Amino acid sequence: MRIAIGGFMHESNTFAPLPADRERFLEGSLTYGSAMVPTWKDAHHEVGGFIEAAGKFGFEAVPLGMAWATPSGPVTDEFFEHFCDALTTGVRIAKADGVLVALHGAMVTPKYPAADTEIVRRLRGAAGPGKPIAVTLDYHANVCPDLAKYADIVVGYQTYPHVDQRQRGLVAAELLTRAVKKEIAPATAVAALPLFINLLGQDTSRSPMSDLMAKAREAEKRPGVLSVSMMAGFPYADTPDAGASVIAVTDGKRDHAQAIADELAAAVWAVREQLNVPSPDPAAAVAQAISSTNTPVLLIDLGDNIGGGSAGDGTVLLAELLAQEAKRFVVVLHAPAAVAAAKQAGIGGSFEGLVGGAVDKLHGDPVPVKGSVRSLHDGKWVEVEPRHGGRRANDQGHTAVIDLHDGNVLVLNSLRTPPFSLGQLTSLGVDPSAAHTIVVKAAVAYRAAYGPIAGEIIPVDTPGLTAINPARFTYTRIKRPTYPLG
Asked: N or C: which end of the chain has fewer CB within 10 A?
């Protein structure tokens, strides 16, 4: 049994100005053919699950390639065509018995608002009829119902933070091998909801989302049900398929799958109001943090959530911390020019200048800071624990640690890097547990790493490309009405 394995993953924020071209994927991870194996085999990621599954379920894995980039603006049509060609050509050459592909589900290009569905449509053409295709999707996928026309099996992550990726890859691989052996005849259906769930409400450890996940697991125990996936959606994509959904896979009958998906979608709709979670403004949040004795306090910069495609150089919370004379804070900013200045000053040298607010005017103005260069780093580290995103080898680019007054620390990096691992700080000699306040540019994904050390967590309603309130954005392509926008 030969199974072709590969992936093409990007979460596209259509409000973000920076497109994902070949360079962005090279900064993330771009491998072709067998070169993907050493990069991903040990990762807590679905592709790592695919590779493990070969030995576990007795098939020969034929690697096609893997492309992954940090969330940003849409993928360029040029790179999309290039890597689609790499995948489809690989499938044709492999003459495999089935295809396993890892997709995000919220990829957008200028030409294809449902780019992931277009990938699977092309893979179906390359594989030919009768060859089963299994797809894994991120929990934040905006699932196009047409995906079920081309994929036999669709399995989504069921944790946020995403710590079940490798396991979901194994689930998809097991179902695919059973389909190849004709033990099952999988049929997939999608129930799409006109619903934006803000990212705080998507947290799978929080009710009512935790209750909905329990319903999905119960549904999987019913006769003939192979998999059920609750999908929270990605509200920062202005596309016709944006929103929450439910995916069901059953043995043999698509009508059965559709009935299961529709039933659970109705359960999601019934609690839609409870899934929207309010948060304080920056001034109130910083005041609350300063007065807290439960440290470290995490200030969650929702509007500059790097994992959602934002700039990573938002200064709203930094400016407020300085204005309120906070002590012992740690702030990480994407600031390549400032890193270059720090390198020129050298370790122990003085640092003075403007930081942040360089990419756009949505995340705050540049802030003047003054301090000294504590250390300089290559920005690379390895994460050995299961963390959101599943990556093992991490790289935030050349990085400088700047000591400010009152025990405050500024970390400046040259590659936008979501805060999914404490290694981002500990690899620099910065002890996050010793800080009073840490600004975390995320929404929920950080919790797997930062949650265990947090004394108090304060999500903050900051402005930016990933602002928690969808009413801050102008949508022109979504279905109307979509709750809570109308």
From this structure: C
Integer Cα distance of 182 and 224 in angstroms: 15
Number of H helices and E strands in the chain, helices first, is 14, 19
How far is the CA of 394 from the CAs of 28, 68, 131, in angstroms? 9, 13, 36
- Alpha carbon dihedral 300, 303, 306, 307, in 10-degree steps, equals 80
Containing 330, the helix (H) or strand (E) segment is strand 329-334
Pairwise CA distance, residues 459 & 169, whole Å:
31
Mean pLDDT score of the chain, rounded to an integer? 97
Task: Tokens 């994904």: give the residue.
Answer: 445
In the DSSP assignment, the letter for residue 198 is: P
With beta carbons less than 8 A apart as the criterion, state whether 439 and 330 touch.
yes
Q: Could you tell me the CA-to-CA distances from 441 to 208, 323, 419, 444 in Å, in that order?
A: 24, 19, 7, 10
Contact 137, 103 (CB under 8 A): yes
Separation CA 57–CA 1 (nearest Å): 10
> Closest Cα partner for 58 from 97, 95, 87, 32?
97
pTM of the prediction?
0.94
User: Cα(14)–Cα(222) distance, rounded to whole angstroms?
Assistant: 39
Residue 379 has φ and ψ, to the nearest 5°, of 85, 15
pLDDT at 107 over 90: yes
Sorting pLDDT into bands at 50, 70 and 90, what band is 361? Answer: confident
Say how many C-beta atoms besides its own lie within 10 A of residue 190's C-beta: 24
Structure-block tokens of residue 460: 């903050």
Give one DSSP letter per residue of 386-433, joined into a string: --TT--SEEE--SEEEEE-STT-EEEEESS---S--THHHHTTT--GG
Tens of pLDDT, residue by residue over 4-59, are 999 999 999 999 999 999 999 999 999 999 999 999 999 999 999 999 999 999 99
What are the beta bridge partners of residue 250?
Answer: 187, 225
pLDDT in tens, 190-239: 999 999 999 999 999 999 999 999 999 999 999 999 999 999 999 999 99
* Residue 110 DSSP label: S
Q: What is the pLDDT of residues 279-293, one digit of tens each?
A: 999 999 999 999 999
> At 158, phi and psi to the nearest 5?
-125, 20
Q: Which tokens go with 227?
A: 């998999």
Q: Above 90 in pLDDT, residue 126? A: yes
CA distance 146 to 364: 40
**Closest among 336, 303, 315 to 415, alpha carbons compared:** 336
CB 453 within 8 Å of CB 431: no
The structure tokens listed for 81 are 């065509």
Structure tokens at 287: 């005041």
In angstroms, the Cα distances linking 403 to 191, 397, 433 are: 51, 19, 17
